[in-house]
Write a structure and sequence with these properties.
The complex is a heterodimer of chains A (122) and B (405). By secondary structure, chain A is of the alpha+beta class. Helix content of chain A is 16%, strand content 35%. The chains are: A alpha+beta (122), B alpha/beta (405). Flavin-adenine dinucleotide binds at residues 8-14, 31-34, 39-41, 44, 46, 48-49, 85-86, 114-116, 139, 142, 163-164, 261, 292-293, 298, 300-302, 304 of chain B.
Chain lengths: 122, 405
C-alpha cells in the first residue's frame, strides 16, 4: 500500500491506497470525501489552492490578499503568479470580490480575502 | 471611565472573549495597539484557518473579518479602541490606555488578557559572526511582504521548519526570492506534513534535518551563512560545515507568550512560559483571565477562539458576582512535554491540550479515569481531548501521561 498526506485542509489525513495505472483500487484513512478527489488529482494532475496578494490603487493599504476559489494545477503556479503580478484593482475591495474570473482557463476565480477601504483621494 | 470587562489585545482570542462577554449583556472595552483588529491573522494570508470552527477553510484575513463583523454588530455593548496601547494594569483593576487621542484611565470589574506572543529573536540564538542587515524573524518578513508590499531579499535561507518557517519558504518562492534551504535542528520536520508537501516538496526546497546555523558573515548586508550537522545534544559536528551565499536569513525558531505587563500580578507556568490559567481561563489573580498565545502557543486559531470565548464567558460571570472555588493542578507526566491549562476547576469540562515529547506511532492518553488512543503523534501537533467532569472527580492532582502502545 502507498501512503499520501492530503493537503486540502489542516487535518492532514494520511491516506493509504492501492492504485494500478493511476486508477485507485482501494483506499483508507481519509476522514472526508475530499480525500478521494485529492488522491485522484494527485495521481493524475496535482492541484493546489494558491494564496497571494494583488496591488490596490487608492486603498488604505497597498495590497489586497487573494486566493484561488479552488485548487489549480500545480504546474501552472508560476504562470499564475506572473498573471497576478500584472493585475491592479481599484479600492474599495470587499472580501469575496472576484478579482480575476476563470484564471488561466482553470475554472477557478481569484477572489479577495480581505476588505480594503478606499482612502480619500482628490 | 468604567467598564464591566476590559479585553487587552484584539487578536483571535480577544475578539472571541469580547463577543462572548457582550452576549451575556455586559459592557466591554477591547483595546488593540494595532490600527485594526485581528492580530497576527491579518498578515497570515495563507489558507489553513477555521476548519474546526467554521467547517470550511479560510485565510487569516477572512477568519479575522468574520469576527470583526460580529464586533460591529455588538457595537452598542463593545467599544473597540484601536491604535490604543494598554500600558499598565494595576492591582486596583485600573488600566492605563495610551492612544493618539490621549491617555485614558479605565477601571474594569474583570480583565481578559489576550496579548498574543512574540517571536524568538536572533540574539537568543547566540550565533557567532557578524551582525549585518538582512536577518529577519519570519513574522517581520511576513508583515513586510503581505502588508507593506516589500521584498525582503533575493536569496534566502530559513532556520526552523515549523509551519511558519515552511509557509514563509513558499511565500518567498512565490514572490521571486530563491529559498536555498530550510534548516532544522531536530531529526524530523517541526510542522505539519501537509506543509512539508505543499510548501517545500512542491517547490523543490531542500530541508536539512539535524542541522543548524553556526555562523553568519557579511559587512553591511548578509553575504554568507554556514550550517553544520548537529549531534543529539544539538552540538555542531566538526567537518560537516556547508556554506550558502545568501543575502537573507529568516528565523522561525519559536514564539514566546507575551506576559511582561502582568509581571508581579499573576503566576506564569514554567513550561509554557505563559500566564498560568485554569480551564475557565482564570489566572492566579481572580479578576484577571487570559487566553490565546499569551497562555500557551496554540497550533490552530480555532482553539484560540474557543479559549477566548471561554475566558470571556467566565470573566463576565465573575464581573456579575460569581466566584470560582479551588483549582486542581495539572502537570505533565510520561512522554508529555507540556499541557494546557495548568489548573482544573470543576465548574466546567476540561479541554486539554497536550504536546508530546517525541514522535510516536500510537499512544494512550491517560488523565484521571479518562483514556484515549491517538495515532501518528508529533510534538508540533497539539493533541486535544475533551474530558468530561465525572472522569476527574475527587482528584487533588491531575497528571497527564502518554503511554506508547
Ligand atoms: C505566522 C503564523 C502562521 C500561522 N498559521 C496558522 C494556520 O495556518 N492555521 C491556524 O489555525 N493557525 C495558524 N497560526 C496560529 C494562530 O494564527 C494564532 O495562534 C492565533 O491567531 C493567535 O491569536 P491571539 O489572539 O492569541 O494572538 P495575536 O493574534 O498575536 O493577538 C494579540 C493582539 O494583542 C495586541 N496587544 C498585545 N499587547 C497589547 C497591549 N499592551 N495593548 C494593546 N494591544 C496589545 C497585539 O497587537 C495583537 O493584535 C499561525 C500563527 C503564526 C504566527
Amino acid at each position: 500500500m502507498e501512503k499520501i498526506v492530503c493537503v486540502l485542509c489542516p487535518m492532514g489525513c494520511k491516506i493509504k491506497y492501492n492504485a494500478v495505472d493511476g486508477k485507485i483500487i482501494s483506499l483508507e484513512g481519509n476522514r472526508c470525501p475530499r480525500g478521494v478527489s485529492y488522491l485522484e488529482d494527485e495521481l493524475r494532475e496535482p492541484k493546489r489552492i494558491v494564496p497571494t496578494s494583488v496591488r490596490v490603487i487608492n486603498g488604505e493599504m497597498p495590497l489586497v490578499s487573494v486566493k484561488t476559489s479552488k485548487p489549480i494545477p500545480r504546474r501552472l503556479i508560476s504562470q499564475f503568479m506572473q498573471t497576478v503580478k500584472n493585475v491592479k484593482v481599484e479600492a474599495p475591495v470587499r472580501v469575496g470580490d472576484v478579482i480575476i474570473k476563470n484564471v488561466l482557463e482553470t475554472g477557478a476565480d481569484v477572489i479577495a480575502t480581505r476588505t480594503v477601504k478606499r482612502v480619500n483621494s482628490a | 471611565m468604567k467598564t464591566d470587562v476590559l479585553v487587552i489585545g484584539a487578536g483571535a482570542a480577544g475578539m472571541g472573549a469580547a463577543i462572548a462577554a457582550a452576549k451575556r449583556g455586559l459592557n466591554v472595552v477591547i483595546a488593540e495597539r494595532d490600527e485594526i483588529t485581528g492580530g497576527i491573522l491579518n498578515q497570515c494570508i495563507h489558507n489553513g484557518f477555521g476548519l474546526h470552527y467554521f467547517r470550511e477553510e479560510l485565510t487569516g484575513p477572512e477568519y479575522a473579518e468574520r469576527f470583526r463583523e460580529q464586533l460591529e454588530k455588538l457595537s452598542d455593548r463593545i467599544k473597540v479602541f484601536t491604535d490604543c496601547h494598554v500600558l499598565k494594569l494595576g492591582e486596583d483593576r485600573k488600566a492605563l490606555l495610551v492612544s493618539p487621542k490621549g491617555i485614558l484611565e479605565l477601571e474594569a470589574k474583570a480583565v481578559v488578557y489576550t496579548s498574543g506572543a512574540r517571536e524568538r529573536p536572533f540574539g537568543s540564538l547566540m550565533i557567532p559572526g557578524d551582525r549585518p542587515s538582512g536577518i529577519f524573524t519570519a513574522g517581520v518578513a511576513q508583515r513586510l511582504m503581505n502588508i507593506d508590499n516589500r521584498k525582503v531579499g533575493h536569496r534566502a535561507l530559513i532556520v526552523g521548519s515549523g509551519d511558519i518557517g515552511m509557509i514563509m519558504a513558499r511565500r518567498l518562492t512565490l514572490e521571486g526570492t530563491e529559498v536555498v534551504a530550510v534548516v532544522e535542528r531536530l531529526p524530523y520536520p517541526g510542522g505539519l506534513l501537509r506543509n512539508v508537501i505543499q510548501c517545500l516538496k512542491d517547490f523543490n526546497i531542500p530541508l536539512y534535518l539535524s542541522s543548524t546555523v553556526i555562523e553568519v558573515k557579511g559587512r553591511e548586508r548578509l553575504e554568507e551563512v554556514v550550517i553544520a550537522n548537529v549531534d543529539e545534544q544539538f552540538k555542531p559536528i566538526p567537518g560537516t560545515e556547508r556554506s550558502f551565499k545568501v543575502d537573507t536569513l529568516i528565523l522561525s525558531v519559536g514564539l514566546i507568550p507575551q506576559v511582561e505587563m502582568l509581571d508581579g500580578l499573576v503566576q506564569t507556568d514554567r513550561r509554557t512560559k505563559g500566564v498560568a490559567c485554569s480551564n475557565i481561563g482564570q489566572s492566579s489573580r481572580e479578576w484577571i483571565f487570559a487566553a490565546g498565545n499569551c497562555t500557551a502557543i496554540f497550533d490552530l486559531v480555532d482553539y484560540v477562539t474557543k479559549e477566548g470565548e471561554r475566558a470571556g464567558e467566565y470573566a463576565s460571570r465573575y464581573a456579575m458576582g460569581e466566584r470560582f472555588s479551588q483549582n486542581v493542578p495539572i502537570s505533565p507526566g510520561e512522554n508529555v512535554m507540556l499541557t494546557f491549562p495548568n489548573f482544573y476547576n470543576a465548574v466546567d469540562d476540561l479541554t486539554l491540550y497536550v504536546r508530546c515529547k517525541k514522535p510516536m506511532e500510537k499512544a494512550m492518553l491517560k488523565v484521571g479515569n479518562f483514556e484515549k488512543i491517538f495515532e501518528d503523534l508529533i510534538p508540533s501537533e497539539m493533541i486535544v481531548a475533551k474530558i468530561p467532569n465525572q472522569k476527574l472527580s475527587g482528584l487533588d492532582r491531575i497528571v497527564v501521561e502518554l503511554k506508547e502502545v
